[in-house]
Amino acid sequence: MSTLANEQMSIMDSKAYLDMSLLRFTTAGSVDDGKSTLIGRLLYDSKSIFEDQLSAIEETSKRKGQEEVDLSLLTDGLRAEREQGITIDVAYRYFATPKRKFIIADTPGHIQYTRNMVTGASTANLAIILVDARNGVLEQTLRHTYIAHLLNIPHVVFCINKMDLMGYSQETYETIKKELEQLVVKLQLRDARFIPISAKYGDNVVDRSEHMDWYQGTTLLHLLETIEINQDLNMADGRFPVQYVIRPQQKDHHDYRGYAGRIASGVFKPGDKVKVLPWELASEIKAIDFYGEELDEALPSQSVTVRLTNEIELSRGGMIVHQGNEPTISNTFSADVCWFNEKSLDLSKKYILRHTTNELKCVIKGINFKTNINTYEKDLDDKQIKMNDIANLSLMTAKPIFYDSYRKNRTTGSIILVDEGTNETVAAGMIN
After folding, report:
1. Does some domain include residue 7?
2. Same-domain check for residues 253 and 188
């Protein structure tokens, strides 16, 4: 085959790779439920690790006196994690199969690292929650399922792990599954799946298990490769937060004025009737530019430049929306907030609120209730919000923001709170 033909095939392969869909998923579960081992098994069985990585974990496993390769070492990258055999920070891993690309967030199971799970799961399309077949549903299972519900993760997969230690018992699996199904109904999860696995030996992870022929469902990797995620995008509510105003002021583009940003939701097309916030002025999309080309339409997550038919004074923090389908405009709202900072919430302080491309000062007007994420009960009396706590707060901003409920739109419904003195991110929130 000629060099030119090889280059053409390489270009075609690269284009095919870029066109593949991307699935972001997170793993959660109790301590020692096997999250890191499961990810290691996925990487190992899908041929997504290098030989030197495999040699390194084989050598480490031998030094620890283990007869088998400890696949959890592939993700427990911190020295403290390897020494304790636990996950502390969020570990991100990337791999791909011929069908799809993946970004994995391996999150800690300890209650003191709840904030890490919220961070890792905030952008996930899917959550894998591991349950130890020996222990069944624990408080940590309730907590992680609640966080998946709170973050509105579209798909949740419960993997009942360590089935090898229970003799691959169908009765054990069905008992745990029944309890989890009650949890799914209680939290009204949109899409929940159940798979019996053994991460250590690879049963139903990449290949079907020979020990569980009673299970007729899919393997975990096949589910990850084929689960439909395009329907998870909000295609109805047009939201375009403006990041930057482009005015080249060059001879070839003397009158050019474009508004650059990333589409949060909805589909935008030239000719669409739109409203420009905060001014609430009506306009029409003249063109949508992308790398020197004009697009017929722009979809969620695309970064584009929008031109309008009339000149409107618009800057970073503004938003272009479809006429007749506007977000809520207000400077007061409530939100479920996960507190990240070691310093407790201080009602007397002002915080910086970041929402889409907007940044402004805010105050917390009150604590409505604190959520016990192990029991789902609301505590109306405890007003001290410490690190890893989740509470419902009433907030007031210095000027109105344009938002949707988090259930409706994960982009325009999310906020971040920053300490204006230290510039530390102290909390993340979901607008009700």
Report:
1. no
2. no
DSSP H or E run through 426: strand 425-431
Residues of the chain with pLDDT under 70: 1-20, 50-54, 56-58, 60-62, 64-91, 108-113, 249-254
Q: What pLDDT does residue 95 have?
A: 86
Given this model, what pLDDT does residue 67 score?
Answer: 63
pTM: 0.84
Cβ contacts of 291 within 8 Å, gap of 6 or more: none
Domain shared by 268 and 337, yes or no:
no
pLDDT at 17: 38
Total number of domains in the chain: 3
What pLDDT sits at residue 208? 94
Residue matched to tokens 């997969």: 157
Neighbours of 129 (CB within 10 A): 25
Distance CA 7, CA 220 (A): 35
C-beta of residue 242 within 8 angstroms of C-beta of residue 262: no
Picking from 274, 292, 322, the residue at the C-terminal end of a domain is 322
Q: Does residue 246 belong to any structural domain of this protein?
A: yes
Could you tell me the CA-to-CA distances from 224 to 101, 126, 220 in Å, in that order?
Answer: 10, 9, 6
Condensed to tens digits (0 to 9), the pLDDT of residues 242-272 reads: 999 998 766 666 678 999 999 999 999 999 9
Q: How much is the pLDDT for 112?
A: 57
> DSSP letters of 61-111?
HHHTT-SS--GGGGT--SHHHHHHTS--S-EEEEEE-SS-EEEEEE---SG
**Whether 154 and 207 share a structural domain:** yes
Return the HEC string of 338-353.
EECCCCCCCCCCEEEE
Q: Which residue range(s) make up the domain with 257? A: 239-322
pLDDT on residue 102? 93
Asked if residues 394 and 114 have their Cβ atoms less than 8 Å apart, the reply is no
Final residue in a domain of this structure, among 199, 231, 263 = 231
CA of residue 96 relative to chain centroid, distance: 18
Domain CATH number, residue 373? 2.40.30.10
